[in-house]
Amino acid sequence: MNIKIMQEKSSDPTIVFELIRLAFENEQFSDHQEHILVEKLRKTAEFIPQLSMVAEVEGEIAGYILLTKIQIIDKENQKAFDSLALAPVAVLPQFQGKGIGGKLILGAHQIAIELGFGSVVVLGHADYYPKFGYVPASVYGIKFPFDVPDENCMIKELTDNSLKGIQGTVHYPEEFGVIS
């Protein structure tokens, strides 16, 4: 199977909207609003077009990933650090389990590094994201602004020591609907 990872084209959003909806339709741990979230995030200053990526299989869009700019706020030391949030990664049901999500994640990581970002946070499955180097954010003294099990609140250093000396709470854009 030939999988091609690339930046989303201006003609892709309608296809991506439906792809995300279908990918999360039967997901147990979902509010089933991921497609709406992406539409909202596209209109924000935190949206980075290069990190809105699709996976094509034989010319068909089969997967999507979005990394959005966020901040880690250290209120105690009055500092803010730029990071990225992975939300969502989505693969059409008929293409799931074929490594497409993993290729999207690795491709997005590479572009994020090229753009100068040092870390990515994700709220996700504790048995999936560690395959890509994600660890509980608490390892670095980083908290998420909601009550979710620690093993689901993860972070990845994209470059060595990019999280050195960084601690605080993840602050999402308001479109995520999270109050931090």
UniProtKB/TrEMBL annotation:
It comes from Sphingobacterium paramultivorum. InterPro entries: Acyl_CoA_acyltransferase, GNAT_dom. The keyword Transferase applies. The keyword Lipid metabolism does not apply. This is N-acetyltransferase. Residues 1-159 form the N-acetyltransferase domain. GO terms for molecular function: acyltransferase activity, transferring groups other than amino-acyl groups. Keywords: Transferase. CDD domains: NAT_SF. Pfam families: Acetyltransf_1. It comes from the Bacteria.
